[in-house]
Structure prediction request, 503 residues.
Amino acid sequence: MRLDHFPEEIRPHLIPGHSGQLVYRCLGCGEEFGIKELLYTCPHCRQVLLLYDLKFNRLKSIPGETWHRIFDYRKMLTLPELKGIYRFHEFIGPVIPLDAVVYLGEGHTPIVEANETMQQRAGLRFFFKNDGQNPSASFKDRGMASALSYINYLVRSGKVSDVLAICASTGDTSAAAALYAAYLQPHIKSAVLLPHKKVTPQQLSQPLGSGARVFEIPGVFDDCMKVVEGLSERFNVALLNSKNAWRILGQESYSYEIAQDFEYDMADKVIALPIGNAGNITAVMNGFLKFLDAGIITCLPKIIGVQSEHADPVFQYYREPDAAKRTFKPVTVKASVAQAAMIGNPVSMPRVINLVDLYNERSGKSNVFFVQVTEQQIMDWELLANRNGHIACTHGGESLAGLVAAKTQGIVDENDVAVIDSTAHALKFSGFQDMYFENKFPGEFAVTPKPELINSPKLVQPEGLEKLPAPGKPLTGSDFSLFVDRVSDEIARELDLKKVQKA
Prediction:
């Protein structure tokens, strides 16, 4: 659609300019730093950073209703750089020129309403946001599109060259990092560190297929993260974990899309999401706060952060009701089907603490909550969701289990409308479904299959058939007709089908 087809008053806003003034701001000492170099922690106090736009107030000069029209009309543009997360360019990467934006199809994943059966089981109306429909099949693509677009800008402007991007991962981060780095060859190469035997085969295949150097090390994600942090401090590499503040910016798009999909009405809305390394919940809170400050939304939705009892440091921190007595303590994680959330020492924990306080303050009430669920609940709710038309991963099951727990605890009620974060595609974690169906879960998972949720294929091979088809050896004539009739009859008996009554 051509620009001259849009309303005249909207045209000047549709193609965003190269504006804004971003700085890194330390959440510890409050010091600010320029963005010409990639920083991951404060050079002074080593705390984590967030990116702030010193010219954010310019966005407030545009009325909220005008922003609605700008974003809604941008949907009709065919420019690739504005089709993904950068539809919200002014809020995500205002310093990045559009010609440096990397777009691989990320963002604007569907919000699918649960069917009546599932809503009755959960006790309220809810939707799945299927972030597994991003290019590498997880929400991590949002952050990588942002981080790699900025690195691409630095490369194009001659500020850096021959970049090695590196990350620690439980699977999804490595897949996204390797994919986006591969697109920017030969200027950017990638390496990923994975905990040995703690990544599903499907996830391991992704960075290998994208050409990344893959290193498996003993331990869990937290051990990989420490090695990557050491590399980033001692060598010239670009760290792509959520410690990278550019990742957080890209993942804020999740909030913006939800706001747009609900016509910017956030009253009585609930967002339930798993915590993991705490980058996503950080981004979701920060995104909604920005939209509130700009007048695009008029209230903040309720946030439910969910953790398995096998990896629950954030839940344990907020379990203490007195903020003055809270002390963060990393936990030793146990085996979890929510593999990407199996993190005992989240990098973004300082961001969470900072933003939860701000979010509750701006809400005028407690509006961020944390719940704990069991491994059994995660698997049961994931399988139940997928039996009712969804493609939820184990983390989507974790989020749904958390929503149900929040409903039981009175944190949400039947008048709320929830959005469940299914962070990745179900096929990435199909091995856990197989273990459930075959009753082969190791004891440390504490998962016992429920018979009504088990499903398995049945071989149909009627007894007495002398001739059967085989690859390269098809049946013909009466032999084939007999095979079809006998197999059809056996399937009909299994399904209790009734014969067609002929007139």
